[in-house]
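quick one, 89 residues, struct below
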Amino acid sequence: MLQAQAVADVTTITVKVTGVGCSSDVRSIGDMVEKLEGVTACEVEKRGATTRFSVSYNPDIACTDDIYSAIEDTPGCKNPNDRPYRVKM
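---
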């Protein structure tokens, strides 16, 4: 489920992600998303079986597909060859 709120040139969305099991996962995902040009913040809202992240970005520079791809392309903390995270629509 996607919720959006626009403020000036920044949009904030909530992204639900499955496969997040530990604090390292949260940091890895946040770091990958924040590396995207146009993303100003990626913070965890709620951890659990489905973890929610709040992502703030400039929609003129980045798009939701970029954000989703960054999340799903983040290497797993147990095995860097795995891509265990999935965006839940």
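The radius of gyration is 12 Å.
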